[in-house]
Recover the amino acids of this structure.
């Protein structure tokens, strides 16, 4: 018999996926070029040519057993060493390969990191707005989600509310910077203050409260901003990364967990992840993809289109009178809806073939997300529909 918890999940499907499916069906009716689908965060730019060339070279020259056989449980040793060296060079860290665990994307990395540092029944603190799948990730591990309300004026962290959320059952704090859905990147001041709060709480409750940093958008920053690497601010940090956005490889499902060498039991974290994978079946990501990304660690796709789309969309939203915080990065923007009920707002938008995602699913009612990882030409064409929607429905 199917467990009831999974049957219940059928009635609470991903809002983002549901809207994406609606957009696809509507596109079959009127042509997908005529549907302005801002629902799904699927990278719209190709992977770097060097990645494709690397894959071809590997297929032509490496032994098939090496390319297509199982990788070791913790990942291929040379790949783990290359990831550690890259992080050290870029962020002034001192990782060794023993601190790196290769995972099936950021989702797989987070699934392992949560189980590494938390026992069933303990709490994971998350800042709203947050990626909706955090809820099943956390609850699926037998943990409890504790949400800190958003600071909507800039989508940094409400530090007082954050400190109040930490308690004796807090095992870890899960952050996402740059953030999906707001596009905000945590400032060095925010990360410093969070680290100070975590140190105080850890001392108060007599345990190491971990920071799990989800960083798939790390390379997508605008205006020449530099990356604030959270593990540099707080020792007890597990960094979860995916190459899905930087190299435009979402379908390849490749990422890693990096345990700060200065964290509690750092030398055991990757090995424990290997044991966790035995119980979850989430193990041994594809060997050929590991080998390929190891040769492309300092590359990214041409990510400039996302900043161009952001500037166009931000200007249009401001022109139409939306309250909106300008993103620091990612390919999302998170304006305030023109009525209190963002679900009703987004439903009305579909009458104009605009597919927007209500903020309720991100823990931030009254707002909506637009994923602008689409062609710039389509972003510009969507403005006529957006203007008509705002004028006809809200008299603006």
């Amino acid at each position: 018999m199917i467990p009831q918890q999974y049957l219940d999940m059928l009635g609470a499907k991903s809002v983002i996926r549901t809207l994406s499916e609606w957009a696809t069906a509507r596109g079959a009716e009127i042509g997908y070029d005529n549907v302005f689908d801002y629902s799904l965060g699927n990278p719209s730019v190709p992977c770097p040519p060097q990645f494709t060339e690397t894959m071809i070279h590997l297929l032509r020259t490496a032994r098939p057993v090496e390319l297509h056989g199982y990788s070791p449980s913790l990942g291929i040793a040379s790949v783990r060493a290359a990831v550690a060296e890259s992080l050290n060079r870029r962020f002034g860290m001192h990782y060794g390969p023993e601190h790196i665990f290769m995972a099936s994307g950021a989702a797989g990395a987070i699934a392992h990191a949560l189980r590494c540092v938390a026992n069933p029944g303990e709490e994971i603190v998350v800042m709203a707005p947050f990626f909706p799948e955090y809820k099943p990730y956390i609850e699926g591990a037998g943990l409890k989600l504790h949400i800190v309300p958003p600071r909507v004026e800039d989508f940094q962290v409400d530090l007082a509310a954050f400190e109040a959320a930490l308690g004796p059952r807090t095992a870890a704090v899960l952050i996402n910077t740059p953030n999906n859905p707001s596009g905000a990147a945590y400032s060095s001041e925010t990360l410093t203050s969070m680290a100070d709060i975590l140190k105080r709480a850890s001392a108060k409750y007599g345990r190491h409260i971990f920071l799990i940093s989800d960083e798939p958008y790390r390379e997508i920053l605008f205006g020449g901003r530099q990356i604030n690497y959270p593990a540099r601010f707080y020792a007890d940090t597990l960094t979860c990364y995916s190459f899905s956005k930087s190299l435009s490889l979402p379908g390849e499902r490749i990422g890693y967990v990096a345990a700060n060498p200065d964290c509690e039991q750092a030398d055991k974290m990757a090995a424990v992840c290997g044991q966790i994978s035995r119980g979850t079946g989430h193990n041994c990501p594809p060997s050929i993809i590991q080998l390929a990304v190891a040769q492309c660690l300092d590359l990214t796709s041409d990510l400039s289109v996302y900043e161009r789309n952001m500037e166009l969309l931000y200007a249009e939203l401001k022109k139409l009178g939306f309250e909106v915080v300008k993103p620091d990065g990612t390919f999302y923007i998170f304006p305030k809806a023109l009525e209190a009920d963002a679900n009703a707002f987004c439903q009305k938008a579909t009458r104009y073939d605009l597919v927007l995602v209500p903020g309720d699913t991100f823990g931030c009612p009254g707002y909506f997300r637009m994923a602008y990882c689409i062609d710039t030409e389509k972003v510009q064409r969507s403005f006529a529909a957006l203007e008509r929607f705002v004028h006809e429905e809200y008299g603006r």
